[in-house]
């Protein structure tokens, strides 16, 4: 029964995405602590945080509407759906052809749209500030991420992740100048999308600098737990999206259990290494002023455009 | 067949409204059905009406392209007519609604006629009737001078456009043979030399562009839409602009047929400029309807991107890709009609309830108007091109068309066209930002205004009209395969190529243009996936639900939180003003009002912001200044003295006699 195995692999992957994402965030936080000479709380700290939030009661403002209460579920739901489409452990996913990269980016945008609305729902100044800034940054990252994707899909002749991974695995793609440019751009975009330094700082609640945290400032209890978990999954998925586009070697092409185990193992190693790279970038840079971000994201866009141009001229 | 019902004799206002809008809804529905059937059956019907000038009868033709636009116009008119029953009832009493009803019906009938016309004469007659009827609708509240000014600008732009279209038809008719040279049939047969084809195309394109609101001909849109009644704005923005798109497609793909690549490039570039500039201008607005009007400019731009790409691909003889781009453009035409109609209807409901157009005077309406806000939210998500609603499908198709551009033979175009995709992505993201602002400022937060009107939910007919439109948006978003399968005959007729829309079993679930290997999108699966995960999470968390306690907003200990401290539309768009400010004419001032003359003790701080369209200052103001100057000079000829005029006639006759 082929479809049955596809569904099993799909379920396994969704489970891995939901379960492993906090560990990856924990790993990055741990490395960050070490690199700054602090003692870390360990890889498991995000799990403890989420568990604590789930048992707490929810406190809502009087004028919170259904949008405010619905958004956490939507954020979590979109993240899980995207997680079921990206080939992470195997290419034989049941849902892999239901969305291509452009759709995935747009599904994330839907979640962001609702998060920004939730930020404006209570009517505090912080919420609106966060929403406004988040949408501004999104409008600058979107062209950059699209150009990076364009480069890859020009080379892979498809926007479907499955076919891009296939093209890489069959050796049709290799280390090309365009891919180098595109992956550099993609790293910069992931930093922005995941709200890491220098774009945003997830560990601060300082009024004037926070962006994502400002939008979700009014959340508490299980709602906050879902949003936090959702953003960990989102971070994890952006990294795995990068892996699928630029480092797809080792993702199982068959539904053989052994190969899937190997690809899970390789995934853990890749994630570990990428965590180190991200932490090095993060500790090496200072948080940028909001309006300097245009330069940062402009650089990402430029890199991605160079990727497209070089893929057309050189290849 | 188009039907015109004018019921003005009745005196009972309520009955009049019910009857007339019900009948126009019915007529629109019949037209929409006729459109569906024509496209589905693939048949073409022609009728020659014995009206018109002597020996120049009117020709009507219902082919697939007409059928498609008939469907779009008919469907939205159907929804808007239902909506109008409640809307016009709630519109301030004592206004002359007979005029509104008469011109509303003439307007809809004229749009149907434009789609059906098959000769230049009848097309122009219908076109002018459409323009005139909409002029009177814009003028509906003619008590205010700004409305008269808006209607005047609209009329001038409409006429410049009509003159250009007339000239274009004149050029094309010059190459036809036979007595019936003014019919589109004769023009289809004719062969145009490239030079004259270019002249005809440019004339008609700019003529239609003036109607469609392509930048730089967009100035009338943000003036006329805000002042018209909202049901009229919904129709004008949703479908009247589309008749111009119809005209462009009819003339390029159906009549001229063969064209060089730079035409398509020009359309593409203008489309991109309109899309990006339209959305940026929209982001700066705080008048709700003006903002929506600028979004029409943006969406017309997106439609033109699809059409431009299709023209480029056609001229390089790549029919499959051309079909993809054309379908993307047409799909967006239909989508924009639906979501923009919905947004204008929602705006009408909001303005009706609050008597405000300035968003910064609103807030928190989601608690008072739950239905309207939900439908408006659907419109916002659709226009922001977010899955699973319809705006996303057409943008996705356009992206796929962009991705095919590397197969073009000219290297420079290969390089530059992908940049267009980046601009389209920028447009989408900015539109999302803009609609977060619109929805957030109007419906969320607390009431910001100075007046405190009693806000009530819209009436049943308004809700039904909006609900049907919202459902259509969802259906167009999750069932694109079926709809594109229905539309495919259009691309087959116009560019002789079809899309592969389905593959394998349950093919209707996956939209796979070009090739399933290349890209696929399954709207139903994405929607079901998200809904399922949300539902499961919700249920799991509510097995043993924790308590939800409602408290006042935490005010950081400040204790005097006022609604004034919320973000409003001006502050929301501040980062964008800062980044893209160079594209606008911005005047921003902050000053302190001192107390009794001493600046050290200010009473309050003032903020002044004026954002203007640069095109007005660059293009229109100089022209207007010269026209006024010239007419003043020419006016010096008039003295009002009869003997001076007699001398004029005498001189004219002598000169003519001397010359001839």
**Shape descriptor of chain A:** globular
Spans of at least 5 consecutive residues with low confidence of chain B: 1-11
Largest interface: A-B, 82 and 83 residues
Largest sheet of chain A: none
Helix vs. strand class of chain A: mainly alpha
Radius of gyration of chain B: 27 Å
State the helix count of chain A.
11
Give the oligomeric state of the chains in this entry, treating copies of one chain as homo and distinct chains as hetero.
heterodimer
Query: What is the H/E string of chain A?
Result: HHEHHHHHHHHH
Number of domain modules of chain A? 1
Structural class of chain B: mainly alpha
The helix content of chain B is 55-70%
Summarize the structure.
By secondary structure, chain A is mainly α.
Structural account:
The complex is a heterodimer of chains A (315) and B (660). By secondary structure, chain A is mainly α. In chain A, 70% of the residues lie in helices and 1% in strands. The model of chain A has no long low-confidence stretch (mean pLDDT 88). Chain B folds into 4 domains: 216 residues, no CATH class; 240 residues, no CATH class; 40 residues, no CATH class; 43 residues. In chain B, a hairpin with a 2-residue loop joins strand 4 and strand 5. The N terminus of chain B is likely disordered. The chains are: A mainly alpha (315), B mainly alpha (660). At the A-B interface, strand 1, helix 3, helix 4, helix 5 and helix 9 of A face helix 14, helix 15, helix 18, strand 3 and helix 20 of B.
